[in-house]
Structures are given as structure tokens and as C-alpha cells.
Design brief:
The complex is a heterotrimer of chains A (about 220), B (about 190) and C (about 450). With about 220 residues, chain A is mainly alpha-helical. Helix content of chain A is about 45%, strand content about 0%. Chain A has 2 domains: about 140 residues, no CATH class; about 35 residues, no CATH class. Chain A is built from 13 helices and no strands. The termini of chain A are far apart. Chain B has 2 domains: about 100 residues, no CATH class; about 60 residues, no CATH class. Chains in contact: A-B, A-C, B-C. Chain C: Pfam families: NrfD. Chain C: Belongs to the NrfD family.
Chain lengths: ~220, ~190, ~450
């Protein structure tokens, strides 16, 4: 019988097999890289908003407290986005004719709320309650980053489950005095280890926080 | 046994037989005559052939055992590690519970054992090998149907084309034919 | 007829099927039908992906429904292929050589159907890979103490091992088809698939070691896989699922339903492809005996279940037993008993076992009966839990039935491709058996 394959067919077959393996490995590397990339987690990506609101200006320069606009953060599950009236408490007096603020005025006139695009957003199967985190002293900056340095708002943390669990498995180092919850800069916290090193440990006892319970599935997936 | 590289000329000599018993007998007699670099081709496995060819290795079963042990270790180790690294305290189950771990341990043992045995078989057999000089022999397509072939390769120290051909003829085959080497390089 | 002459004939008879299929018109008719069913699958699964499992009728307390009962049913059917080819190989029952190839193919496609069901039942089916332990951004691994993660490993291993076993078993026959192919395309395609197999004695020796070892390992694998399925039930505290007979009961039921399907396929193929002298009446007779034997063992499971509830005297178990006999889903219990065991009794008669058409009908009845059994096991236990607050009813929605029709397509379409393009009978093993027994009727 005649040969069906040439002698070089085997070389080509092996090359193809090698190529297949390389492609598979590359695919896994790319997928793994994608899952952790800011492309997937949206860290640092700016959402398009109806008004280019600057947290840097309002928080960093003017010193407006977070809770002035996100009023429900301490008492409700959702921190809430400000209504047009909140904006207008100031902007009915200052920058009244600014073209940039035209959508705000239009919203007030028509009664149709501004459509802010949420930046810090959890999947719908995650139960999250702002009030408990704030009342136990998890400061805003832990999850939302240095908003006082963001001209346009972007996501500061990946909001992946591992990031949530890092804290739920070991909450003590992340606790701060609830009275100072909106403070942005905590860089000098660790400079006073005598006072602060045991703060978290102490407060977990005071509040009765049990990390073993914090990692149970139904804490977040109800 | 190593086969010669495919560009040797001639690659070897091939004798064709009608019945399996003839082939087994021919292999025995070739080995008695001192030929070592030889192979037999049959459409189905012949129980006696392993012995006739003087094959003693049990590499495949050992590979299978190795795979099984590795798989079981991997399965059990996986469950120990993951339960240690990321404990899920749920349903009042102990963290390390060997009873429920057994099933995955067993499944991975089976998976690895079979994978090792089959991959090992293919590697030891140098398969896949799409092109081989023996495919060029007239009638060799019947090696997968109803004919039985004996090949003596040119790298055998006793291989002497005329002498070996005469020896093969003495085994009373249907035909003896030289196995041509690979075609001209492209 | 001389020995090699019959080798020639067997080779020709089996390799002619992929190369010059004898009934292309009928094949196309059937294949068209199976593509239609396959289309149903894509419609049903697509709708499910878009809308979620709310389209189905299952809800607490009957949260499993048809999806899981079909999962158990399909997987059980699959087991017979492995049992025939592996168990009978290591026990040197040569008659298995005429049946193992298509039985194994049946296993493969049935396991694929089975594996799809739990995935579709997940709620977020596209995240099924979460069942695999891989480093992930959740810093969590699957719960290995849950039978659901056992499922993943069991089905994956079973599918892989079945595929490998089937493939190395078919390689020598693919070489045979390659050597008989006339067109260049067929030569190349079968040549690639045959891996350059040339029937070397040294290759055969290692091949045989690997093949027999795989077979020897596959037998406990089958038992473990369906035992694991039974633990899926028995690991929960549901009344009616706690009997210790469950693993054995499930494995036997699996073999029973699987042998029935093998019998159906054997009768069909030998008729359609004129393979009467390779799949002989003796083969059908032996299959029928196996069917009868496994059927009686399954019947023992039924008896034991009743005994277990009565002997245990647990109030909830008795209530479940009562529900099985007279409750809302009693039809599935009695359906299982009647379809499984009544026509089966005909197999005691040699005359019946020699009539392929009757065997086909009995096997069909068993397949239906086993379908009822899987359904009954789920429904009668789940719809009445301990508390009255968790009582409920389940009625499959049309989408679930459409998906079932689609699953038949998922099974049939690749099986028909197998019948069209691959050697449906292991030619080399038939020849080997013929040499060893000297009689084709025993081969």
C-alpha cells in the first residue's frame, strides 16, 4: 500500500499539538489576567455622569462631609445619592448660571432626578449594609478610596469576593473610631502604635465581632 | 529495541504470513536465529506474541500504579489544603473529615491511573506516528484485516540483506519484500 | 470457511459501514429528526439562559424536578456500556466483543446528556466552572464535603475515562478503516484519528496492558459514580431517601436501564446494518438474561425499601411509603413497578428471548419504567417534607419537556454520527475472539 502521510506529516502534527498546548496555556494566562485586571474590576475607570461632579473639589478643597450628600450611610443599607435639592442648597446661591450645572437646574425645574451612574457597585446577589460597617468604624476611605483626590469619581477597590473576605476574616486592623468615619487620611494612625495597635482587637471584643461568623455564606448571600 | 531511523536504505525486510500461528512461530525462530531488531504486525493482539518477542517490561502497569498513587495523593492533598487555606465552617462538619474526602480521592486516583496508563502506552509506543516505512510495503493494508507480517530491521547486527532474505524465505511466508525507506526529502 | 477468510469477511463487513453506508436515506431521515430535537435543546437551553430556572416548574420544596431525575436516568443508562465492555472484558466473556463498541459510544453520549442537566439546573449555568477548584478571586474553594462537588468530579472522571477507554479501543479499527478507504480525504481523516496505528506486536502488548488495566479500574469507577449519585439523595435528611440500600439499589437500577438501552440499540443496529452474523441471536439472548438478572436485583431494592420503612417504623418514612402507594405521585410508583417488572417476566422464556422485536418492546418498557422510578424517588420524597409548611407540588413546565426532547437529540445526533462514520462493532476484537473460541456464535 502507498504511504498516506509524508515523512514530514509527523513533524507538522507535533508542531500543531505543541501549538495547541501553547494556545491553551496562553488562554488560561489571559483569562486569569483578565479576571484580576482593572478592565474586569473597573478600578480606576471613570463613569460618564450627567454632571462632571468633582469629589476633589467638594471634599478635598471645600471640606464638605461625605454624609452631607450621602445622608443615609450611617442609618441605612444604602448610602444614597444626593437629590437635586441637596445640590441646590449651595448652587441656588453659587455658580447659579454655570453652564456645567445646567442639568441640575433642569432637573429641579422638571422634577426629574439626575441619573447618576453608580461607581461603587456590588452584584445583586450580595447583601451589603452601610450602617453596620460605619457604626463599627470601617471608614469610607477603606472601600471608596481617597475620593478627596478624585476629580472624577472612579472605583478604588476591585470589589471581588476575596477583597471582602480579607477584611471579614480579620477585621481588627481595619477598625477606626466611628466618630471619625469620614476622615480620608489615616496615614498617621500607625505612627502611634502604643495607642492604636490594640484598638482593633479591643473593639472586636467590645462589639462582639466573631470573624468565624463573618465568613459564613449567608452573611452576604441571603 | 530501537527501530532504525526512517532514512536507512533499506529500512528492513518484511515477510507476509497467512495465519497468526505462522507469525508467532516465525518470530520465535527469528529470535532463535539471533535476530533481535524485529517486529510483528497483526490485525488483532496475539496472546503469545509478547513472550515470542521477548518483551518483559511492565512499564505500563507501573505507570498506572504511579498515576493512581499520585492521583489519590493529589485528590486528598487538594481537599486538605483547600480546607486548611480557606476553611468553610458550615453544617457543623469538622474541617478535616476523611470520610467525605474519600470519593474525590478515589475519582482522582482513577483519573490519574487511567491517564498515566494510556498516555504511557502511547508514549512508549511512539504514537502518534503517521508516517512509517512499513506502510509502504505492498499488501501492508491487510495487516489491519487478515494478514500477518514479520519485519527484521536493518539496524540488527546480523542484518545482511541477502542472508536475511534467505532466512525469511525459509520461514515459508507468502512473500518477502524489502521495506523501502522514506521517500526523497521534500 | 478458513480462519483468515472469516477475518477478511468480518473486516469487510464492519469497515464497509463508515466507508459506504448501506442506508443513507434512512440515516439522513433519522439524522434530520435528531437535528430537529437538537434544535429543541438549543431553544430550551437558550430560553433558560435568558430567563433563568423560573421557567421550570421546580421550586421549594421540590427543587430538583425533571432536571435531576433525568440526570440520574441518563447517567444510569450510561453505566451499562462500561459494565459490558469493562466487566466482561476482565472476566474474559468473549461475546462482549460484538457489543462493546456501540455500548461504549452509548455510554459517552448518555454521560454528556447527564452532565448537562445539573449544569443547566444551576441557576447561573455559565458559572458552572465554579465547581472546579482553581485559584480564584473569591478566595474560596468548592465545599468538598458536599455531594454536589462529588458530582463534578465523578461525572468528569467518568466521562474522561469512558472517552479514553472507548478511544484506545477504536484506534485499531480506525486503522483498519484507514487502510480500506479509497478517497484521499477519508484516508487522511481516519489516518489522523488512528494515530498511525500499524498493529505492531510490541504496540499490541502495551496496548493490551493499558486496555485491561483501564477496564479493571473502570468497573469500581462505575460503582462509585452511581453510589455517589445515591449519596446525593442519601446525604440529606429527607424521609424516603435514608435507606442503606440506596447505593446498591442505584447501581443495579443503572445497570438495568442501561442493559435495556443496549438491547434496544443492538436489535436496531443488527437489523438496520445487516449485522445478524456478528450480533447473533445468542448475543441478544445473553443480553436478555442480563436484563432479567439486573431487573430482579432492582426489584430487590424495591422490596428492601418497603421493608426498611416498615422495619424502621419511623413515622415520616411510613408516611412517605404511604404517599408512594397512594399519594399525588403514586402513578409514578406503580408505573415504575409495572413497566419495569411485569413485561420483564417474559424473559424467563427462551422463545421470547429469541425474538428481537419482542425484546425491543420489553427493553423500551424497562426504559420507561426506570424513568418513572427516578421521577418517583424524587417526587414522593420531596413534595412532603417533615413540616407541613414545606409541602408542595411539582408539575413540570413545557420548557422542561422541551429540554427533555432536546436532550434526546443531544444523545441521538452524535450517536448517529458514530453509526455513520465509525466502526460500530469492534472488528479486531471479534476476530480475536473468533481465533480464541473458534466459533463466531460465541465470539
Amino acid at each position: 500500500m502507498a504511504q498516506i502521510f509524508t515523512a514530514s506529516a509527523d513533524t507538522r502534527l507535533r508542531a500543531a499539538a505543541l501549538l495547541g498546548v501553547v494556545a491553551l496555556v496562553m488562554a488560561l494566562v489571559v483569562l486569569g489576567g483578565y479576571a484580576d485586571s482593572s478592565y474586569a474590576t473597573l478600578v480606576g475607570w471613570v463613569e460618564h455622569q450627567p454632571v462632571p461632579f468633582s469629589h476633589q473639589h467638594h471634599v478635598g478643597e471645600l471640606g464638605i462631609d461625605c454624609r452631607y450628600c450621602h445622608a443615609a450611610a450611617e442609618t441605612g443599607a444604602h448610602a444614597g445619592l444626593p437629590s437635586t435639592f441637596t445640590c441646590m442648597t449651595c448652587h441656588s446661591q453659587v455658580w447659579t448660571g454655570a453652564p456645567m450645572l445646567a442639568p441640575v437646574r433642569a432637573s429641579l425645574a422638571s422634577g426629574k432626578p439626575l441619573e447618576w451612574q453608580r461607581v461603587a457597585r456590588l452584584p445583586d446577589y450580595v447583601y451589603f449594609d452601610h450602617s453596620i460597617h460605619l457604626s463599627r468604624g470601617v471608614p469610607c476611605v477603606t472601600c471608596h478610596g481617597r475620593v478627596d483626590r478624585m476629580p472624577l469619581m472612579s472605583r478604588a477597590q476591585p470589589f471581588q469576593m476575596q477583597w471582602c473576605l480579607d477584611c471579614h476574616r480579620n477585621p481588627a486592623p481595619h477598625l477606626r473610631p466611628p466618630a471619625e468615619i469620614t476622615r480620608m487620611d489615616w496615614s498617621n494612625w500607625d505612627e502611634e502604635p502604643g495607642i492604636h495597635a490594640v484598638y482593633g482587637e479591643l473593639m472586636t471584643k467590645v462589639y462582639g465581632i466573631e470573624p468565624a461568623k463573618l465568613t459564613q455564606c449567608n452573611i452576604c448571600h441571603r | 529495541m530501537r527501530e532504525p531511523s526512517a532514512d536507512k536504505e533499506p529500512f528492513g525486510l518484511m515477510a507476509e504470513f497467512r495465519a497468526p500461528e505462522q507469525l508467532v512461530d516465525a518470530v520465535r525462530r527469528s529470535r532463535e536465529a539471533g535476530y533481535r531488531s524485529l517486529d510483528a504486525y497483526s490485525p488483532y493482539p496475539l496472546e503469545e506474541m509478547r513472550q515470542a518477542l521477548g518483551m518483559t517490561g511492565n512499564v505500563v502497569p507501573w505507570l498506572c500504579l504511579t498515576g493512581g498513587v499520585l492521583g489519590a495523593a493529589a485528590g486528598y492533598g487538594l481537599q486538605l489544603y483547600t480546607n486548611d487555606a480557606y476553611p468553610i465552617a458550615i453544617g457543623g462538619r469538622p474541617l478535616f473529615a476523611w470520610q467525605p474526602f474519600m470519593l474525590i480521592t478515589f475519582e482522582l486516583m482513577v483519573l490519574f491511573a487511567v491517564g498515566f496508563a494510556i498516555a504511557g502506552m502511547l508514549v512508549l509506543n511512539h504514537l502518534p506516528r503517521l508516517h512509517h516505512p512499513v506502510f509502504g510495503v505492498t499488501d501492508f493494508h491487510r495487516a489491519s484485516a487478515d494478514r500477518f507480517f514479520l519485519a527484521i530491521f536493518c539496524n540488527d547486527p546480523r542484518f545482511e540483506i541477502a542472508e536475511t532474505a534467505a532466512f525469511l524465505q525459509s520461514l515459508e511466508p507468502l512473500r518477502v519484500e524489502a521495506i523501502q525507506s522514506t521517500e526523497e526529502p521534500e | 470457511m478458513s480462519e483468515t477468510a472469516s477475518d477478511t469477511r468480518i473486516t469487510a463487513e464492519i469497515t464497509r459501514i463508515p466507508l459506504h453506508h448501506p442506508h443513507m436515506r434512512n440515516w439522513w431521515l433519522l439524522f434530520g429528526l435528531s437535528l430537529l430535537l437538537l434544535g429543541c435543546f438549543f431553544v430550551a437551553a437558550g430560553a433558560l439562559f435568558l430567563n433563568g430556572v423560573g421557567m421550570w416548574g421546580n421550586n421549594i420544596p421540590v427543587n430538583w424536578g425533571l432536571a435531576i431525575s433525568h440526570y440520574v436516568w441518563f447517567l444510569g443508562i450510561g453505566h451499562a456500556g462500561t459494565l459490558i465492555s469493562a466487566l466482561l472484558l476482565i472476566t474474559n466473556a468473549h461475546w462482549r466483543n460484538s457489543l462493546n463498541r456501540f455500548a461504549e459510544a452509548m455510554t459517552l453520549f448518555a454521560v454528556v446528556c447527564a452532565g448537562l442537566y445539573p449544569i443547566l439546573h444551576l441557576g447561573r449555568p455559565w458559572l458552572f466552572y465554579w465547581m472546579a477548584p482553581y485559584p480564584n478571586t473569591m478566595t474560596l474553594y468548592p465545599q468538598f464535603k458536599s455531594p454536589l462537588s462529588w458530582d463534578f468530579f465523578a461525572v468528569l472522571t467518568y466521562l474522561t475515562v469512558s472517552l479514553l477507554f472507548w478511544y484506545i479501543g477504536i484506534v485499531p479499527d480506525l486503522a483498519s478503516v484507514r487502510d480500506r478507504a479509497k478517497t484521499r480525504r477519508a484516508q487522511v481523516l481516519y489516518g489522523l484519528a488512528a494515530l498511525g496505528w500499524r498493529g505492531s506486536g510490541r504496540h499490541w502488548a502495551r496496548w493490551q496492558q493499558a486496555y485491561r488495566l483501564t477496564a479493571a479500574i473502570a468497573v469500581p469507577l462505575v460503582v462509585s459514580v452511581h453510589s455517589e449519585i445515591s449519596l446525593l439523595f442519601a446525604a440529606g435528611p429527607i424521609p424516603g431517601w435514608t435507606s442503606t440500600v440506596f447505593p446498591a439499589y442505584f447501581v443495579m437500577g443503572a445497570a438495568f436501564s442501561g442493559f435495556a438501552v443496549v438491547l434496544m440499540i443492538a436489535v436496531t443496529l443488527r437489523h438496520a446494518l445487516s449485522l445478524r452474523d456478528i450480533v447473533t441471536e445468542r448475543h441478544l439472548d445473553l443480553l436478555a438474561r442480563f436484563l432479567l438478572a439486573t431487573g430482579l436485583m432492582t426489584a430487590y431494592g424495591y422490596v428492601y425499601e418497603v421493608f426498611d420503612a416498615l422495619y424502621g417504623g419511623e413515622k415520616q418514612d411510613l408516611a412517605t411509603l404511604h404517599d408512594r402507594f397512594t399519594g399525588l405521585y403514586a402513578y409514578s410508583y406503580w408505573g415504575a413497578v409495572i413497566f419495569n417488572f411485569v413485561p420483564l417476566q417474559l424473559l424467563w422464556f427462551r422463545g421470547i428471548r429469541a425474538r428481537p422485536a419482542v425484546l425491543f418492546l420489553i427493553a423500551t418498557s424497562v426504559v420507561v419504567g426506570m424513568w418513572y422510578e427516578r421521577y418517583m424517588l424524587l417526587m414522593t420524597a420531596l413534595y412532603r417534607d417533615y413540616l407541613v409548611s414545606s409541602w408542595g407540588e411539582y408539575h413540570a413546565s413545557l420548557w422542561e419537556w422541551l429540554l427533555f426532547a432536546g436532550m434526546i437529540g443531544v444523545f441521538l445526533a452524535p450517536f448517529l454520527l458514530f453509526v455513520r462514520f465509525l466502526p460500530v462493532i469492534s472488528a479486531f476484537e471479534v476476530k480475536e475472539a473468533l481465533r480464541e473460541t473458534g466459533d463466531l456464535r460465541h465470539a
